[in-house]
Amino acid sequence: MRGDVLGLERRRRRWDDEEKLAIVLSVGADGATVTQVAQSHEVTRQQIYAWRHELKKKGLLFPTADALFLPISAPEPMEPALPEAALASPTAPDPQIELVLANGRCLRFAPDLEPAVLVRLIRVVEAA
Fold first, then answer.
1. Among 56, 60, 48, residue whose Cα is nearest residue 18
2. Nearest CA-CA partner of 49 in 29, 30, 35
3. Which of 42, 43, 68, 87 would suit a FRET pair with 93, their CA atoms being 20 to 30 Å apart?
4. Is 51 helix (H, G, I), strand (E, B) or coil?
5. How do residues 67-80 score in pLDDT, each as one tens digit?
Protein backbone atom coordinates (compact mmCIF):
# COMPACT_ATOMS: atom_id res chain seq x y z
CA MET A 1 0.00 0.00 0.00
CA ARG A 2 1.30 3.44 -0.89
CA GLY A 3 0.46 6.75 0.77
CA ASP A 4 1.07 10.27 -0.40
CA VAL A 5 1.50 13.32 1.74
CA LEU A 6 -0.71 16.02 0.32
CA GLY A 7 0.30 18.86 2.54
CA LEU A 8 0.48 20.05 6.09
CA GLU A 9 -2.55 19.19 8.12
CA ARG A 10 -3.88 22.18 9.96
CA ARG A 11 -4.79 21.74 13.56
CA ARG A 12 -8.02 23.36 14.63
CA ARG A 13 -7.27 26.45 16.66
CA ARG A 14 -9.33 27.77 19.54
CA TRP A 15 -9.63 31.53 19.89
CA ASP A 16 -10.79 33.14 23.12
CA ASP A 17 -12.92 36.28 23.10
CA GLU A 18 -9.94 38.55 23.84
CA GLU A 19 -8.01 37.24 20.83
CA LYS A 20 -11.08 37.53 18.59
CA LEU A 21 -11.70 41.09 19.78
CA ALA A 22 -8.08 42.08 19.14
CA ILE A 23 -8.23 40.66 15.61
CA VAL A 24 -11.59 42.28 14.81
CA LEU A 25 -10.44 45.66 16.16
CA SER A 26 -7.26 45.49 14.07
CA VAL A 27 -9.38 45.89 10.94
CA GLY A 28 -9.08 49.52 9.93
CA ALA A 29 -6.08 50.19 12.17
CA ASP A 30 -3.41 51.83 10.02
CA GLY A 31 -5.64 51.25 7.01
CA ALA A 32 -5.65 47.45 7.34
CA THR A 33 -8.41 45.76 5.37
CA VAL A 34 -10.37 42.68 6.43
CA THR A 35 -8.49 40.66 3.82
CA GLN A 36 -5.09 41.79 5.10
CA VAL A 37 -5.99 41.07 8.73
CA ALA A 38 -7.41 37.66 7.81
CA GLN A 39 -4.26 36.72 5.89
CA SER A 40 -1.95 37.87 8.69
CA HIS A 41 -3.82 35.71 11.24
CA GLU A 42 -4.40 32.81 8.83
CA VAL A 43 -8.19 32.93 9.07
CA THR A 44 -10.84 33.65 6.46
CA ARG A 45 -12.57 36.98 5.95
CA GLN A 46 -15.85 35.26 6.73
CA GLN A 47 -14.44 34.18 10.10
CA ILE A 48 -13.68 37.79 11.02
CA TYR A 49 -17.21 38.86 10.05
CA ALA A 50 -18.65 35.98 12.11
CA TRP A 51 -16.51 36.93 15.11
CA ARG A 52 -17.62 40.55 14.80
CA HIS A 53 -21.27 39.47 14.82
CA GLU A 54 -20.67 37.11 17.76
CA LEU A 55 -18.85 39.77 19.81
CA LYS A 56 -21.65 42.29 19.19
CA LYS A 57 -24.23 39.75 20.41
CA LYS A 58 -22.16 39.12 23.55
CA GLY A 59 -21.93 42.88 24.19
CA LEU A 60 -18.15 42.91 23.87
CA LEU A 61 -18.01 44.99 20.70
CA PHE A 62 -19.90 48.19 20.21
CA PRO A 63 -20.11 49.59 16.68
CA THR A 64 -19.83 53.11 18.04
CA ALA A 65 -16.99 52.46 20.49
CA ASP A 66 -15.11 55.50 19.21
CA ALA A 67 -18.17 57.75 18.94
CA LEU A 68 -18.17 60.99 20.85
CA PHE A 69 -21.19 62.84 22.16
CA LEU A 70 -20.74 66.56 21.81
CA PRO A 71 -23.05 69.23 23.14
CA ILE A 72 -24.92 71.21 20.54
CA SER A 73 -26.50 74.59 20.77
CA ALA A 74 -29.16 76.01 18.55
CA PRO A 75 -29.26 79.67 17.62
CA GLU A 76 -31.84 81.87 19.25
CA PRO A 77 -35.27 81.21 17.78
CA MET A 78 -36.37 83.65 15.13
CA GLU A 79 -39.74 85.33 15.04
CA PRO A 80 -42.38 82.78 14.10
CA ALA A 81 -43.62 83.07 10.55
CA LEU A 82 -47.00 81.67 11.57
CA PRO A 83 -49.57 83.40 13.75
CA GLU A 84 -49.52 82.46 17.45
CA ALA A 85 -52.80 80.56 17.12
CA ALA A 86 -51.32 78.25 14.46
CA LEU A 87 -48.27 77.53 16.61
CA ALA A 88 -50.41 76.50 19.58
CA SER A 89 -52.54 74.07 17.58
CA PRO A 90 -52.60 70.51 18.92
CA THR A 91 -51.62 69.11 15.51
CA ALA A 92 -48.16 70.73 15.58
CA PRO A 93 -45.51 68.00 16.02
CA ASP A 94 -43.12 68.06 18.94
CA PRO A 95 -39.55 69.02 18.02
CA GLN A 96 -37.28 66.01 17.53
CA ILE A 97 -33.64 65.35 16.84
CA GLU A 98 -32.84 62.97 14.01
CA LEU A 99 -29.67 60.89 14.27
CA VAL A 100 -28.41 58.67 11.43
CA LEU A 101 -26.44 55.77 12.90
CA ALA A 102 -23.39 54.08 11.41
CA ASN A 103 -25.49 51.16 10.17
CA GLY A 104 -27.74 53.55 8.22
CA ARG A 105 -30.69 53.39 10.57
CA CYS A 106 -32.38 56.63 11.59
CA LEU A 107 -33.22 57.38 15.22
CA ARG A 108 -35.56 60.23 16.17
CA PHE A 109 -35.85 61.38 19.78
CA ALA A 110 -36.95 64.32 21.90
CA PRO A 111 -34.28 66.90 22.74
CA ASP A 112 -34.80 66.38 26.47
CA LEU A 113 -34.01 62.63 26.38
CA GLU A 114 -31.56 61.63 29.11
CA PRO A 115 -28.05 60.98 27.70
CA ALA A 116 -27.77 57.57 29.44
CA VAL A 117 -31.08 56.46 27.92
CA LEU A 118 -29.93 57.69 24.50
CA VAL A 119 -26.67 55.72 24.73
CA ARG A 120 -28.57 52.52 25.64
CA LEU A 121 -31.05 53.14 22.84
CA ILE A 122 -28.28 53.64 20.26
CA ARG A 123 -26.56 50.42 21.36
CA VAL A 124 -29.78 48.44 21.11
CA VAL A 125 -30.65 49.81 17.66
CA GLU A 126 -27.10 49.29 16.33
CA ALA A 127 -26.96 45.71 17.69
CA ALA A 128 -30.35 44.75 16.22
1. 60
2. 35
3. 68
4. helix
5. 556 666 666 665 65
